[in-house]
Structure formats: C-alpha cells, structure tokens
Specification:
heterodimer, A: alpha+beta, B: alpha+beta, 4 helices, 33% strand
Chain lengths: 83, 155
C-alpha cells in the first residue's frame, strides 16, 4: 500500500512516501491512521491528533470511514493552507 | 479555462491582457492576486515555501474551475498557483474571471478563491527573520475537523 505524506505530517514522519503492509483488520482510512500511529515515534507524533489530519484516496478527499480500495494511493496531510 | 501550477513568478497585468485578447463578448474582467505578506500567525515573516500534492492539485483546481463555470456564465477564466519558496511581496496566487457583465466576474472570482482556500492541497511553511520555520495553521477548519474525527482541536 503506497502512502504519501505532506507538510508537517511529512516532516514529523521524516519521509514523504512509504510502502506499508498493514494487517487485514485495517479496512478504512481511520483504521490505517490508527495503525500507522503505532509504527514509530514520528508516526505517533504525526497521527497524535487525528482531528488535524486530512486524507485523500487516489487524489480525492475522503472521510475517515472510507474503505481503502486495493492498489490505492493514500495521502495524509494537514488541513490545506493555500491561496 | 486554464489552470497552471508553477514555481515561476507571474505578471497579473500580462495574464489579464492575454486572457481578454480577441474576445469581444467580454464586458469585464475581475481578478484577485494573493501576495506573501510579512505577518501571519507570527510577525517578521521573510519568506515562505508552498508545498503541494502534484497531480491532486491540478485535479482539484480543475474541479473548482468547472464548478464556477457551471454556476456563472463566464467567457474565460484562469487560475495560477505557485509552489516552492517565495519572499515577502511576491505573488502567490492569481484568479481571473471574464464575463459579459460584472456580477458574474466579481462573484465567480470570489467563489474560486474561497473554494481554492479549502480544497486545493497546498501548505504554507513560513520563515521568520530569526531563522525559524513554522507551518501555517488552518484555524477555521478546527471545529469541523474535531467533529468529524471526534478528537481534540488542533494546536
């Protein structure tokens, strides 16, 4: 599963992209965030407050309860601050 | 309709002239140019770096522009958003809308900026004169975020 990180999610984790293999119990975006949080101290910090995290699947915004399709590109990032 | 994501500076006047050239149905053009200012959550900002999500950025801006053109009768529209490092006073974003009448141009330009602010995947990291860097918070979304995730507000 290909996961992308942006902005302070990226800097806290220390990389912009990683390939992960979560257990089959990880079904939704929220499941994945909760599992990723346990992977390293950096992950724990990045995913420490899920209220601050947004997600996209295949480059479209998704809600936390969205199931992750096979082969998806998943991205986690803070609320956007462009413009 | 055009969407451009670029590192290079742009010239608002030249972009408007190009957009309007040759279309005599255009009665008016509205534009908004956003600049790097020297204060945000902190004072003494000297520069900022805009990170974005290549691919999703283009996709979201195109969706936003399509939505505007469904809501208003526009003759032409343009969104330019920069990424990378830029210093105080440099332009960051440009929205231009052209229509037969001013109301559609004004309203759609404001709509594009409002939607862009909440839907385009860009993140600002500011630098201050003392060499520190900090990510800009999206404060207005905190309450909504907390409700959706059932967690604590950001910060």
């Amino acid at each position: 599963m290909n996961v992308l990180y942006f902005a302070w999610v990226r800097t806290k984790i220390g990389k912009g992209r990683e390939d992960v293999t979560p257990p089959s119990t990880v079904v939704t975006v929220a499941d994945l965030a909760a599992w990723l949080r346990q992977q390293s101290p950096g992950h724990a910090e990045a995913f420490g407050n899920l209220a601050c995290i947004r997600a996209a699947i295949n480059q479209e915004f998704v809600e936390p309860d969205t199931p992750i399709p096979a082969g998806a590109e998943i991205a986690f990032f803070p609320p956007v601050t462009g413009g | 309709m055009t969407v451009r994501i670029q590192a290079e500076r742009f010239d608002t006047g030249a972009e408007i002239d190009t957009l309007a050239a040759g279309n005599t149905a255009i009665g008016g053009v509205a534009s908004f140019t956003g600049y790097v200012r020297d204060f945000s959550t902190e004072s003494g900002v000297t520069a900022m770096t805009l990170e974005h999500y290549p691919g999703m950025t283009e996709r979201m801006l195109e969706q936003i522009e399509t939505e505007a053109r469904q809501r208003w009768q526009l003759e032409a529209s343009l969104i330019i958003h920069r990424y990378g490092r830029m210093t105080v006073g440099e332009p960051i974003v440009l929205v231009v809308t052209a229509a037969s009448h001013r109301q559609a141009a004004f309203e759609s330009a404001e709509f594009l900026m409002d939607w862009l602010k909440t839907k385009a995947p860009f993140w600002k990291c500011e630098e201050t004169a003392d060499g520190r860097e900090h990510w800009v918070d999206a404060r207005e979304s905190d309450d909504l975020a907390a409700a959706r995730w059932g967690g604590l507000p950001c910060g």
